Amino acid sequence: MNELMLFMVGIVEMMVVTAWTETVTKARVIESGMVTIINIFIWYYVLDKIVNDIENFNLVLVYALGCSVGTMIGTYYISTREGRITLQETELKSS
């Protein structure tokens, strides 16, 4: 159960980090501060789970996989919302 929860938290965290990056680059001061607070609470949860079961490398691995998926989702959302098409997307569409 801890593994699944950390996987989901990894996804959410990277989507939050994507939102944080967008708010910072657009100089949205209040919003970036609020997103930072959310991210700190997520990190607190993750550290608590991993430190309490420090011998369990699977927790780190599953969390890293969740972070990877969350990064891809956040990046895709931002790029499609802003109408950007990356070189990789263009290559995939032409195949």
Q: Keywords, please?
A:
4 helices, single chain, flat, mainly alpha, 95 residues
For the termini, the CA-CA separation is 39 Å
Shape: flat
- Main pleated-sheet profile: none
* Succession of helices and strands: HHHH
Could you characterize the architecture of this molecule?
The chain is an all-alpha fold and 95 residues long. The protein has one domain (2-94). The chain is built from four helices and no strands. The mean pLDDT is 86.
Q: Which SSEs are present, and which pair or pack?
A:
Elements: H1 2-25, H2 29-52, H3 57-81, H4 87-94
Helix pairs in contact: 1-2, 1-3
Short synopsis of the structure:
This protein has 4 helices and no strands.
